[in-house]
Design goal:
By secondary structure, the protein is α/β, with parallel strands linked by helices. Helices cover about 45% and strands about 15% of the residues. β1, α1 and β2 form a beta-alpha-beta unit. α1 crosses α8, α2 runs parallel beside α4 and α4 packs parallel to α5. The longest helix is centred in the middle third of the chain and has 17 residues.
Length: about 200
């Protein structure tokens, strides 16, 4: 099992690609750099700028299908990296919940293990709505026993995050911010989800 080929598709908006990071790693690159596979894993970041969970739900299955391998030969895994565009687009929390539920249910039916990363803080004016959205996503994931990373609560008042976000114009973090997101992912069940021993991450 340890030398099995692993393919990980990350679906989400532009935050999944590390927009604003001078090192162009984002949180995904930092997480994979700290994840040690017996056989190199394949990571595919499939991002669409400005995407809502409704739009994500409409495209993710077709886009991942061409990158995943036959289930008997490859360990296929899905990371759902949720952004903040549901708030800006005026989607109801109920609709956002349903969108994530549908994604996770289809992944489960396809026997694809899922991992969800929630939306990080952005504009202070949208703070309460992003917090509500994150809580709703967490509940959906919990009901399906899918790991969920709450990036909003730990970062909403984090000085380094807020400074990094302000430097980037209030929308995208920089190296420090993506590093914080990566730390949260690595410490919220990432290695257990992959069936790997916990790396010693400071």
């Amino acid at each position: 099992m340890q030398d099995r080929e692993v393919r990980i598709c990350v679906v989400g908006d532009e935050l999944a690609t590390g927009v604003g990071d001078a090192r162009a790693l984002g949180w995904t690159g930092r997480v994979v750099a700290r994840t040690h596979f017996a056989r190199p894993a394949m990571l595919f970041t499939l991002a669409v700028p400005g995407e809502t969970s409704t739009q994500l739900g409409a495209r993710w299955e077709a886009e991942t299908a061409t990158r995943f391998g036959p289930d008997s030969e490859v360990e296929n895994r899905l990371v759902v990296a949720l952004g903040r565009h549901d708030v800006a687009s005026g989607l109801t929390v109920a609709r956002s919940r349903l969108n994530l539920a549908n994604i996770l249910d289809v992944a489960d039916a396809n026997r694809t293990a899922a991992f969800v990363v929630g939306p990080p803080p952005g504009s202070p004016a949208e703070g309460s709505r992003i917090a509500e959205l994150s809580d709703a996503f967490a509940d959906v994931a919990s009901r399906r026993r899918v790991p969920y990373v709450d990036t909003y609560t730990p970062l909403a008042q984090h000085e380094q995050w807020l400074a990094d976000l302000a430097q980037g114009g209030g929308t995208y973090p920089g190296q420090a911010g993506y590093g914080l997101m990566a730390w949260l992912v690595l410490h919220t069940g990432w290695h257990a989800w992959l069936g790997l021993p916990q790396d010693e991450v400071a």
